[in-house]
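Field: COMPLEX_INPUT
Field: COMPONENT_COUNT = two
Field: RESIDUE_TOTAL = 587
Field: MODE = joint
Values follow.
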Amino acid sequence: MRQRPNYLAGAFAGLWLLIILLPIYIMVRAAFESRATYSENGPLGLPTEFTLENFRYAFDNGFGRYMLNTGIVTLGTVLIVVVLVPPLAFALVRGQSRWTRVSFQSMLFGLAIPAQVVVIPLNFLITKVGLYDTLIGVILPTAAFTIPLTTLVLSSSMREIGNELYEAMALDGAGPVRSFLRLVLPLSKGGIATIVIFAALQAWNNYLLPLTLTRSDDLRVATLGLGIFRQEYSLNIPGIMAAILLTVIPILLLYIFARRALVRGLMGVGGK
Amino acid sequence: MHRLRTTERAGTKRGGRPSAGRPNFVWSLPALLFFAFFSVVPLAVAIYLSFTSYQGIPLLPPEWIGLQNWDRLLTDEGLHKAIYVTVALIVLAVVTQVPISLLIGVWAAGPQRNRAVVAALYFIPLLMSTAAITVLFASLVDPNFGIPATLREIFNLPVDNVFSNLLGNSTTALGVIAFIYLWGSSPLHTLIYQAGARNIPEVLYQAAAIDGAGRVRQFVSITVPMLRNTMVTSTLIMVVGTFTSFDIILLLTRGGPSGGTSNLPYYMYDQGIAALDFGYGSAVATILIVIATATSAVMVKATGYDKMAGTQEGI
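Field: COMPLEX_OUTPUT
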């Protein structure tokens, strides 16, 4: 007994699709047209022109440098997370220490404390240790704040490794280091991919930590660059749109080539 | 959990090798210490700074002033306004995002092929950072170059109309901020509801259909009750996200017009970092931390994260 199509729901879904896509359409179209064409057509016009001039404009105004800084911050954050989180997740899943469990549970209570709430004391701390206005000073707290969620995700993926595999390793006389390197790491590739993407997204999209922990122009990350563009070149909307598009392209590539891991990583982002 | 621990001990006695191949506490130390330094220490620093006067200049170290910042907090009208804005934004976020994400998520969970394609398009805003989304919308609501100008032309509106200065009026500015939240985060919540709706057993709907329940009745009596846990998780994420975020406000309105869009975190930033009064900013931060931790604790309990962390240690 097949139901007839639900037209009302379909219409609502279509309307919502329009709301989602319209700003995207305006952004992409405006990014490829000249300022003159944009001011003539307005935001709702049809595409009539194709130029890469706006992207050159963005690069001429330092956006290349900003993207490079974002890349460095992202890479650094991912490296730290990949080195620190798997041992913790392993200890959590296979260890018998009450300490590990209790510490991690108290860590989870801080799950909802995002970095933005502690920007003031972080600024104080980072200044104290002499890392104010350095990219390392941005990387360290960015990585730290991804640890609770990445550990949660990775440990649930490690839990799926069968107990008999560990027992077989133990019978062969393998210590924790060997089990970790030979069994746990190879079998949790999916989980590691997810946490890499989650950490990368956090770093890539971060705005407040770079804003409050750096000052120099040549350390600006891309999100800060967007804010500067909005303030200083607010008349050049196609230029701004091109800059926004530049920050989206790497993630779009991930969406196309690593969709599953990206979706999982994004599901972890929560209220971003 | 107690029972599990006993069997585990018995097991180790039998096996003779108590922890063969098992990692000890040392394995967890690097990550735990690293996290503690950047999260627990700042919490303590925030509390300490809230009793001091400090301008954020390392040459002039914090000076102990006792309860002065906290006294000021009690009578600060800007803070009261910020609390109002925070609550207003949370309410706006919940009443717009919950129904839309629920309906769209359930719709997208349907087995039809075209729905899967559309669902992939709904996803697009998640590829953009909050900063990118905000700057995009800032351009779209610009009175001279954005959609308001086009509407004015198309409908031949007077120069000074409702749309002409959306960010210049507290009410419409809050509306724009809530809309940006909606546009930027409802795709995530749609995904959450979609995943939840896919887990509802098809049999329930078949049984209801045999009993003659129509589509609306099925939605109200099966879908919504079955999604209760999903709804709790999603709403908590939404509330915490709206409560703590201020990058949209910082990029779009800077709290204006005259504090009309300044929520608590923005107020903290504005008073603490922008106005270089780290002591007072830290007092506001302390309040935020307490509320966020309490919400987080509720979230961890409600979603069962803490239990999840303890399911296998006895095996």
